[in-house]
Amino acid sequence: MNFFSKKLLSVGLIFSVLWLIACEKNPTESKSQKPTLPPQSSMAVDLNVFNNAAGFSNTDQTTVGLNFVAARLAVGAINLAVFAHMSVPVATFAAAFSQQPVLKDDGKWHWIYSVSNNAGQQFQADLAGWIDASAQVSRWEMRISTTGLGVPLNNFLWYTGQASLNNGSGQWDIYDPAQPNNSVKVVHIDWDRPSAERATLKFTFVKPQVPENGDVLTYKVEGNDRSITLFDQSASSTLVIFWNAATNAGYIIAPNYNNGQKSCWDELLNDATCQ
Known about the structure:
Blueprint (H helix, E strand, L loop, with lengths): L2 H23 L22 H4 L14 H16 L5 H9 L6 E2 L5 E8 L5 E11 L4 E10 L6 E12 L4 E7 L9 E11 L2 E8 L10 E7 L2 E8 L4 E8 L5 E4 L9 E3 L5 E2 L3
Antiparallel strand pairs: 1-2, 2-3, 3-4, 4-5, 5-6, 6-7, 7-8, 8-9, 9-10, 10-11, 11-12, 12-13, 13-14
């Protein structure tokens, strides 16, 4: 083999190696597997029985008993303290399931779409997901742009998360849109969904310098059974609300209601003797 042939062979080998390296580093290669969206139940909570009865008051005893009213008022307080921070994340994440993602140059699959809430506010959503093979999880980032919340948001990182590859468990972190430049976490969620009939979501309030910091709310699903357990760290007290999603019957155990005794309601939401 003459000098020029050897030189050409060497150059060819170098280019082959560089091409292979480039392929390894190119995130948009077809080998970038599309992750499966975590279940909507990984952040959403079913409170229909209380929301549907929102028009009742504790003076309307012809329709509903005081025990259910106490539970509904407690759920209302929980909505303001915790679930109010979840309304946009839940709505924007649910909308992703009707979209088709595209693989972008950053190596992440992007679900890009617009969604409106019940108040007519528009949100431009960019949900990015990818598989972290070394950790054996999928990872998620939701960026939102909107002008409908008082503080304009431009590509704001509203929530991040990760999930096991079988989508049986994972975490979410929700950030404060009122402080878009500071990346302030408000709520951390640990979720577990071993089957379609069973799920557990644990919401830990992590926003600093507020009374709710450290509070933990656990929501459980067992078939038709639903329960909420709220541990108030500052008061060192626990609230429990249980109900059946099929019958609407349930009970409340609260330190500031009925001397902390278990207080039940029936299918018609009337006060009932606890079994």
